[in-house]
Each structure stands twice: as structure tokens, then as C-alpha cells.
Write a structure and sequence with these properties.
With 177 residues, the protein is mainly alpha-helical. Helices cover 70% and strands 0% of the residues. Helix 2 packs across helix 5 and helix 3 packs antiparallel against helix 4.
Length: 177
């Protein structure tokens, strides 16, 4: 069974992943209301990805017969000054998640919980990708601040839907829902 400290921190992270998903839905809906369908689709997909991360973490707790607790999530930000602001918020959110994932990994290591440490390695790798994607998107958004449709074209060209799933990803609770 995982160390209690790890279980507590992972339970907190499950809530943070659901909150991130909730925030990405709010961002996607804002973009959809602004008639920016490529950005909306990108963030709807990000919302599903964050939800799946929470479900992977939940599955780990279930598989290890650990007690879990599901927590409430905060209301997301739903209004933005322009089409760049939501991406800045998303990058800040990903940086925060990276720090939390690193802290959970460190807790597992400090507790000598090697199985949980190994489980967290995939999430460390994933966060490098998540931060890089949002950082790149923010760079492009800032360069195209006066031309949001150019950002839409970039999303359509560079972030096509339907990427193959990572076969090394942990299994999610409920399967691939």
C-alpha cells in the first residue's frame, strides 16, 4: 500500500486535475462564445485530458486498495479581456501542476514508496509536454494578438485532433471513457 502522505497528496492532486479540467471547459466555452472554434476545440480536448489524468490517479489508488477522497473544485474563471488571456492562465495552471506533481513524486521518494514514485514518472514526463505546448501557444497568441484568426489557423495546422494515445500512460478508472 502507498504511504499515507503520498495518498493524501495524490488525493489533493485528483481534485486539482478535476479543477484544471473544469477551468479548461470554461476557457473552451469562452472561445466558443467568441466564435473561435479551433481554440474552443483545443481546450475542450485539454479538459478531457485533465479529467483522464484525475481518473488515472484514482485508478492507482483503487488498484492499491488505498482510501481516496474526492473533493470539491473551485469555480473557474469564465471571463477574459482578450483571446490571449486564457492561454496565459492555462500556462500558469500547467506550471502549478508541474510543481505539484514534482512534490508528489518527492513525497513518494522520501517515504520510500518506490511503486508510487514509479507511477508518478509518467506524469512528470507529461507535464514537460503540457508546459511546452501552452508556452508555445502563448508565444504564438502574443505574436498574433491583433489577428486572432491567425491563431485559429495555427491551431488547425499544428494541433490536429485525434492524436494517438500514449501507450505508456497509466490506466484510467472506468477505462477509456
Amino acid at each position: 500500500m502507498p504511504a499515507q502522505r503520498f495518498i493524501d497528496e495524490l488525493s489533493d492532486q485528483i481534485a486539482a486535475e478535476f479543477a484544471a479540467s473544469h477551468q479548461y471547459i470554461a476557457i473552451a466555452a469562452w472561445y466558443e462564445a467568441e466564435t473561435l472554434p479551433q481554440l474552443a476545440g483545443f481546450f475542450y480536448a485539454q479538459a478531457v485530458e485533465e479529467r483522464n489524468h484525475a481518473m488515472m490517479m484514482l485508478k492507482y489508488l483503487l488498484d492499491t486498495s488505498s482510501q481516496f477522497r474526492l473533493q470539491s473544485v473551485a469555480e473557474p474563471t469564465t471571463t477574459f479581456d482578450d483571446h490571449v488571456a486564457p492561454i496565459g492562465l492555462a500556462l500558469d495552471q500547467e506550471r502549478n501542476v508541474s510543481q505539484r506533481i514534482s512534490d508528489i513524486f518527492a513525497a513518494a521518494r522520501e517515504e520510500g514508496d518506490f511503486l508510487s514514485e514509479q507511477f508518478m514518472q509518467w506524469f512528470l514526463k507529461e507535464q514537460v509536454e503540457e508546459e511546452a505546448t501552452m508556452s508555445e501557444l502563448l508565444d504564438v497568441a502574443e505574436r498574433t494578438r491583433d489577428f486572432p484568426m491567425t491563431l485559429e489557423e495555427y491551431i488547425a495546422r499544428e494541433h490536429r485532433a485525434g492524436e494517438a494515445a500514449d501507450p505508456s500512460a497509466p490506466e484510467a478508472a472506468g477505462g477509456a471513457l
